[in-house]
Design brief:
Helix content is about 40%, strand content about 10%. It is an alpha/beta fold. It folds into four domains: about 45 residues; about 300 residues, 3-Layer(aba) Sandwich (Rossmann fold), CATH 3.40.50; about 220 residues, 3-Layer(aba) Sandwich (Rossmann fold); about 170 residues, Rossmann fold, CATH 3.40.50.920. Strands 12-9-13-14-16-15 form a six-stranded parallel beta sheet, sandwiched between helices. α1 crosses α2, α4 packs across α17 and α7 crosses α24. GO terms for molecular function: metal ion binding; pyruvate dehydrogenase (acetyl-transferring) activity. Its EC number is 1.2.4.1. It holds the Pfam family PDH_E1_M.
């Protein structure tokens, strides 16, 4: 029988051999041996080790560290000054305006992570800056650094969070929409930074592989809180980064072990959990857990007692140690057993006080960052252990209320000052003054020298692109002719238009179609062979449909970005592409196709982030409308996206019915966004409903009317009895029903109606709202006139006779009702309120009461209410039209 001693010797022989390989051959060779052992175990049905995390220690060992290149003494002073100014800015703001908000504790925990980056890593190379997603709640620290750099003055800092009161102010968080020359990325909607950074890194590779951008050593840094990693968007796309080997991507997760209310994993260990997740997904994981003061303890810990204790200590207890005095730490951690007690016996309380987390040691952070940028294999995640509210003492250090700390009293301010050695006098302390090192000071000179060496100050946002040369006009004019009695859906019209644009010599190469695995639904598969599907590697398999003309063709320089089933990932790509004019100097035109139901409703927060980021591009909501998607039912039938779009100030939302309308809108969108550089997004809905596309009316100013939201498609030349003007308004797929209703009114009831195509209720709403606001402030002149008033003046001298308006759409009644008050007459809205159903389009339109018969009936009922149609005749009309009196309201939720 083999004895325990013999096993121990055998174990040591294995370990010594493996250690020899590491020291004398290479890490890759060591990995090969491990893989061979794993394969051997699998072949012999020996279960593999399920543990995906390493011991609770630093990944970069002290013995392997390189010399720190910076002047630690000066950097400490700079860091202390910036910490103080960040805190002072928040305190001043809340003393001046109680409750104005701001955050101190997040930057207190991440300051060293930022500063090592600013001093040694965040670079600008040949005009291409590293892209840095700063943790949103740490914004005061970034502002404070820019103050020391002389990019902001004291007045600007004093206007933190006072954007309305002052034109010289700082936004609450990173908001490019509000500070367009400073912030690059919006990051404070927690969970959206990781997914945006991943797809930004991938889009950089896309541009390089398509030859639109030269390869450069640009890195994408994402600073994220450990608490926000619980958001699905935070981890949902990490396999993409590993799969495409995005070695330009670095996550730095600020693991202060706390979220807003308490511990992230009080009873567990969030760092170990994240390590397992990222390692399993194929990322390189670097843990920065302990400062250099711990190195000697680990060196003495020959039996692994200290590591074992750290492995077993839950995060909630770690937080308590950070918040408690040294006596508590010694008693409850180092006196767990005699071995630990002996390990710490030579350490004084002062020595224990110096044992800081790795995320607060610039030397340890530097080693991690350097290892990250040298990783050529794929993405890297750095898990840095920090303390929330580090250095704040009783003013929130490691406490559960740290996130809410806005004000420090005099004693707390003195503690903060003394803790970091900031040169502020006692007599000034209550005023919480900023400290600005003189320009001839060693601190200022050092800071400027570091940034000069790295290429300049950051963050900074520039619009580096040149205006796009418009596509050839003939591309758009083609759609003025109509479909020559052939039926076609606007979906196919859009694909034909996109195909032509991709071939255009001016704009073609900049157009980027983005699709979440619905190409065949939208007819986008017809572009597979023309444009190719982007892939990070060349297609290395034989497609099952290779004999087909429209086969699945993947290419490294492919144009179409086929994201798979992820609207969130697709929207993140849209943001990356839509901000390429600023980040890459390229007028990239993203065209994002998606099920309209899964746009604003599903990824509204990312659309808002795109608005904040000043993204430009086309969002194409396919198979849109509540009644235009036969058979799909409640989860797929969209009747609300255009209502959601009303809330987005930068979105131009259109629901075109005809080919020429769509062409005019796309042309105008390209001109506005990529020639005139307006930071807008165009949301356009298209349908699978096939009907004849009429030729474009030869009316003066029709293009402007289409863009402005409404034009007269068919004006009645015959007046009705009693001089009543009947106006039927239609949009998208319901416009043909409105046209049919006008014909039925004339044929069956001798009533003549004008038909109006409403291409955009949002355009009408925004315009009328602006005009109303302008007139309200015009000192009684009231000279502004809305687009609605152009056709229907409110001046009674020009507005004789009664008017009735019936507006039918495939969306909630709230959409047309949003503009009802600006129409001078009775306004009746028909829409598709309620849950969608599975049935044919005709049956659905009857159910939701938006088909031609219901439009006719509602028009007659409106006339009846105005005293212009007989009640008895109305009853007869119901029978003729087949209107069921017993039907329930389709808006009933059941």
């Amino acid at each position: 029988m083999i004895t325990h001693r013999e096993y121990a010797l055998e174990n040591q022989e294995w370990l010594s051999s493996f250690q020899w390989i590491i020291q004398h051959e290479s890490v890759e060779r060591a990995r090969e041996i491990l893989r061979l052992l794993e394969d051997c175990a699998a072949e012999n049905n020996i279960p593999g080790l399920e543990q995906m995390h390493s011991p609770y220690v630093n990944t970069v060992l002290a013995a392997n560290e390189e010399e720190y290149p910076g002047n630690e003494e000066i950097e400490y002073k700079l860091s202390a000054i910036i910490r103080w100014n960040a805190m002072a800015m928040v305190v001043k703001a809340n003393k001046k305006n109680k409750g104005i908000g701001g955050h101190i504790s997040t930057y207190s925990s991440t300051a060293d992570l930022f500063e090592v980056g600013f001093n040694h890593f965040f670079k600008i190379t040949n005009g291409e800056a590293d892209m840095i997603y700063f943790q949103g709640h740490a914004a005061p620290g970034v502002y404070a650094r820019s103050f020391v750099e002389r990019r902001f003055d004291e007045e600007t800092l004093n206007n933190f969070r006072l954007e309305v009161q002052s034109g010289k102010a700082l936004s609450s968080y990173p908001h490019p929409r509000l500070m367009s020359n400073y912030w690059q990325f919006p990051t404070v909607s927690m969970g959206l930074t990781p997914i945006q950074a991943i797809y930004q890194a991938r889009f950089c590779r896309y541009l390089e592989n398509r030859g639109l951008k030269e390869k450069c050593p640009q890195h994408i840094w994402a600073f994220i809180g450990d608490g926000e990693m619980d958001e699905p968007e935070s981890l949902g796309a990490i396999t993409l980064a590993a799969r495409e080997k995005l070695n330009n991507l670095i996550f730095v997760i600020n693991c202060n072990l706390q979220r807003l209310d308490g511990p992230v994993r009080g009873n567990g260990k969030i760092i170990q959990e994240l390590e397992a997740i990222f390692r399993g997904a194929g990322w390189k994981v670097i843990k920065v857990l302990w400062g250099r003061e711990w190195d000697a303890l680990f060196e003495k810990d020959r039996d692994g007692i200290l590591i074992e204790a750290l492995n077993k200590t839950p995060d909630g207890q770690m937080q308590t140690y950070a918040a408690s005095d040294i006596g508590y730490f010694r008693e409850h951690f180092f006196k767990q057993n005699e071995n630990l007690k002996e390990l710490a016996s030579t350490l004084s309380d002062e020595d224990l006080q110096k044992l800081r987390p790795g995320g607060h040691d610039p030397v340890k952070i530097y080693q991690a960052y350097k290892a990250a940028i040298e990783n050529e294999e794929g993405p890297t995640v750095i898990l840095a252990q920090t303390v929330k509210g580090y250095g704040q003492g009783k003013a929130g250090e490691a406490s559960n209320i740290a996130h809410q700390q806005k004000i420090l009293d005099e004693d707390e301010l003195k503690y903060f000052r003394d803790r970091f050695g900031v040169p502020v006098k006692d007599e000034d302390i209550q005023n919480v003054p900023y400290y600005l090192p003189p320009e001839n000071s060693e601190e200022y000179k050092y800071l400027v020298a570091c940034r000069k060496k790295l290429g300049g100050f950051l963050p900074e946002r520039k619009n580096k692109s040149q205006p796009l040369q418009m596509p050839e006009e003939k591309i758009f004019e083609k759609f003025n002719e109509g479909s020559n009695n052939r039926k076609a859906p606007t979906t196919i019209v859009m694909i034909q238009l996109l195909s032509a644009l991709l071939k255009d010599k001016n704009a073609g190469k900049y157009i980027v179609p983005v699709i979440p695995d619905e190409s065949r639904t939208f007819g986008l598969d017809s572009l597979f062979s023309q444009a190719g599907i982007y892939t990070a590697v060349e297609q290395n398999y034989e497609p099952v449909d290779k004999e087909n003309l429209l086969h699945y063709k993947e290419e490294k320089n492919g144009v179409i970005i086929e994201e798979g089933i992820t609207e969130a990932g697709s929207m993140a790509t849209f943001i990356a592409a839509g901000t390429a004019y600023a980040n890459h100097g390229l007028p990239v035109i993203p065209v994002f196709f998606f099920y309209s139901m899964f746009g604003f409703q599903r990824i509204g927060d990312l659309v808002w982030a795109a608005a904040d980021a000043r993204a430009r591009g086309f969002m194409i909501g396919g198979v849109s409308g509540r009644t235009s998607l036969a058979g799909e039912g409640l989860q797929h039938c969209d009747g609300q996206s255009h209502v959601f779009a009303l809330a987005y100030p930068n979105v131009k939302a259109y629901d075109p019915a005809f080919a020429y309308e769509l062409a005019v809108i796309i042309r105008e969108g390209i001109k506005n966004m990529f020639v005139e550089a307006k930071d807008w997004i165009y949301y356009i809905t298209i349908m699978n409903d096939a009907y004849e596309m009429p030729p474009k009316p030869n009316e003066e100013g029709i293009d402007a009317d289409i863009i402005n939201g409404m034009y007269c498609y068919n004006r009645s030349s015959i007046e009705n009895e009693g001089s009543v003007s009947i106006n039927l308004l239609g949009s998208g797929a319901i416009l043909p029903e409105v046209i049919k209703a006008a014909q039925m009114l004339e044929a069956q009831f001798n009533l003549h109606a004008a038909v109006w195509s409403v291409t955009s209720y949002k355009q009408l709403y925004d315009n009328a709202n602006n005009v109303e606001h302008g007139n309200r402030l015009s000192d009684g002149q009231f000279s502004l006139r809305s687009h609605i008033e152009k056709f229907f003046p409110t001046d009674t001298t020009k507005n004789s006779g009664k008017k009735i308006f019936v507006a039918a759409c495939d969306y909630l009644k709230a959409l047309p009702l949003s503009v009802a008050k600006w129409f001078p007459g009775k306004f009746i809205a028909l829409g598709t309120d309620g849950f969608g159903r599975s049935d044919t389009n005709a049956a659905l339109r009857n159910f939701f009461e938006v088909d031609a018969r219901h439009i006719v009936f509602v028009t007659l009922y409106g006339l009846f209410e105005e005293g212009m149609f007989d009640k008895e005749e109305l009853g007869k009309a119901m029978e003729v039209l087949g209107i069921d009196r017993k039907i329930t309201n389709p808006a009933d939720p059941l």
